[in-house]
Design brief:
With 122 residues, this protein is an alpha+beta fold. It has one domain. It contains two helices and five strands. The strands form two sheets. It has a three-stranded antiparallel beta sheet, with no helix packed on it. It has a two-stranded antiparallel sheet with strand order 4-5. It comes from Lysobacter niastensis.
């Protein structure tokens, strides 16, 4: 079975994605392309598109609820890596549930993970 996030994309079109500007600076180990961000305040940047009234991350390639892909997945911001899908690791994720429900999808359940292959080890 396919990972539920690959047919979702709701979180990327619901939340503001803000993080420390150093994640865009290669000299400091940052990997997020600076051109995909905009200044939020003196310490943070946001992924372009996520500060709008109807947020949608510039890196999201998706039809919400049908297919979803992050175009910078291997180098995405830390905040994106820190939000798991509900029940992916055996616990509910309020952020995941809130975004899915806002886009008219049901919250994930433990049953949604039956048969889903774990990702390969890095």
């Amino acid at each position: 079975m396919q990972h539920p996030c690959l047919t979702c994309g709701a979180c990327c079109a619901f939340f503001r994605v803000s993080f420390h500007w150093s994640e865009t600076d290669p000299a400091l180990g940052g990997t997020v392309p600076a051109e995909l961000t905009e200044k939020f305040d003196s310490h943070r940047v946001v992924m372009r598109g996520t500060s709008s009234k109807t947020p949608r991350c510039v890196a999201l390639d998706a039809e919400i609820g049908v297919r979803a892909r992050c175009s910078i997945h291997p180098i995405k911001p830390s905040v994106c890596r820190e939000v798991p899908a509900s029940w992916e690791y055996g616990a509910i994720s309020p952020q995941c549930d809130k975004a899915r429900i806002a886009h008219g999808m049901p919250a994930l359940t433990p049953e949604d993970w039956i048969g889903v292959e774990p990702p390969p080890a890095p």
